[in-house]
């Protein structure tokens, strides 16, 4: 049986070393992991391989001689990708690397059935409750399968991944996310704005989330984009800003894009203190967390910060903007993505007398 030794590193993280020893013939092999689960999975598979070689009268070869694992391929992919793969993708791949048995398998031994088993295991995660999330995990892993052989000669079978993706889609284990249609009501927005304004008045150093929320609605900008805009990127005379690294389906790392600023976005920006390089010098994750916490406190259900972007685009469509005019604000390159907003049933300006505009400008 393999033995396992845990130790705490200077960084405070824990490492687990799995060691396999055989006396006849003499053989020893060890490997260190971040967590116990992948260490045990690796040890179990290696012991089976070592014992099979001994029964055949062969001298066991260490894994380093036998070939790299999927975990090795993931590590190399994260380390050597020439374009930014993004925090979310990197975190998903690290989760696969450290928490799933498939990461301990040799690249040349992974078949479609192993990929299918991995995705079924994903659905057992307490924080993974949808086929759409499983699709994200599988898509990020598929990128490793696609690049490993041509880039590094690792024997990952891209066709095995495609076969697995096809059957998993057919059986419903992975699927695209349903299109969200949630929009906040004016009553919900009033509650949020009052809550955030009160928090800022109580402590002036607190992030003025009411300003951020208003800008998110009328500009249709994502939280990360809002927090990246600098004063240098702002052209008040032309009512536009340069959004750095805007998400683009065909371009990793995003594309710098000029977008139009509908009223009252320019006034909201000009009301912000000009003390730092960025107009909204906050962390995007903090913005999202503050919004989620406020919704929970105010008993507002199933509302995400990103829904404000949908609200803003819908509002502009209700005001009568055409698809090209909408695209100039949202930054969409493909107008087809905006077709959902061209069939609005209401027309008019629902924010014409919204009291909070005066509070943030």
TrEMBL record:
* PANTHER family linked to this entry: INTEGRASE_RECOMBINASE HI_1414-RELATED, PHAGE INTEGRASE-RELATED
Cited InterPro entries: DNA_brk_join_enz, Integrase-like_cat_sf, Integrase_catalytic, Tyrosine_recombinase_XerCD
- UniProt KW Repeat keyword: no
What protein name applies here?
A: Phage integrase family protein
Q: Which residues does the annotated region (Disordered) include?
A: 1-41
Gene Ontology molecular function = DNA binding
From which source organism is this entry?
A: Octadecabacter temperatus
**Keyword presence, Transmembrane:** no
Among the GO biological process terms of this entry, one is: DNA recombination
Any Pfam family hit:
Phage_integrase
Q: Which UniProt keywords apply?
A: DNA integration, DNA recombination
């Amino acid at each position: 049986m393999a033995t396992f030794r845990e130790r705490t590193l200077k960084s405070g993280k824990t490492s687990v070393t799995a060691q396999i020893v055989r006396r006849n013939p003499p053989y020893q092999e060890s490997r260190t992991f971040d967590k116990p689960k992948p260490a045990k999975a690796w040890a179990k598979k290696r012991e089976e391989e070592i014992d099979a070689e001994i029964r055949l009268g062969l001298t066991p070869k260490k894994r380093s001689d036998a070939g790299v694992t999927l975990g090795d391929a993931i590590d190399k992919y994260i380390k050597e990708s020439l374009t930014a793969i993004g925090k979310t993708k990197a975190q998903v791949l690290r989760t696969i690397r450290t928490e799933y048995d498939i990461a301990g398998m040799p690249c040349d031994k992974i078949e479609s059935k192993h990929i299918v088993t991995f995705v079924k295991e994903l659905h057992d995660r307490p924080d993974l409750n949808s086929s759409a999330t499983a699709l994200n995990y599988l898509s990020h892993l598929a990128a490793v399968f696609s690049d490993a052989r041509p880039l590094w000669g690792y024997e990952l079978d891209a066709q095995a991944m495609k076969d697995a993706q096809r059957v998993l889609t057919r059986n419903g284990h992975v699927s695209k996310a349903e299109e969200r249609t949630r929009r906040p009501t004016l009553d919900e927005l009033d509650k949020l704005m009052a809550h955030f304004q009160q928090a800022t008045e109580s402590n002036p150093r607190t992030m003025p989330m009411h300003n951020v929320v208003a800008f998110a609605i009328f500009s249709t900008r994502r939280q990360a984009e809002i927090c990246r805009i600098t004063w240098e990127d702002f052209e008040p005379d032309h009512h536009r800003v340069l959004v750095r690294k805007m998400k683009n389906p065909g371009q990793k790392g995003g594309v710098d894009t000029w977008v139009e600023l509908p009223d009252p976005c320019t006034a909201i920006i000009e009301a912000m203190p000009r003390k730092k390089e960025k107009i909204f010098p906050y962390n995007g994750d903090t913005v999202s967390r503050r919004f989620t916490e406020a919704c929970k406190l105010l008993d507002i259900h199933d509302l995400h910060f990103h829904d404000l972007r949908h609200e803003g685009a819908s509002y502009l469509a209700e005001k009568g903007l055409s698809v090209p005019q909408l695209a100039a604000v949202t930054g969409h390159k493909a107008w087809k993505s905006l077709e959902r907003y061209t069939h609005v049933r209401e027309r008019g300006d629902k924010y014409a007398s919204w009291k909070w505009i005066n509070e943030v400008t």
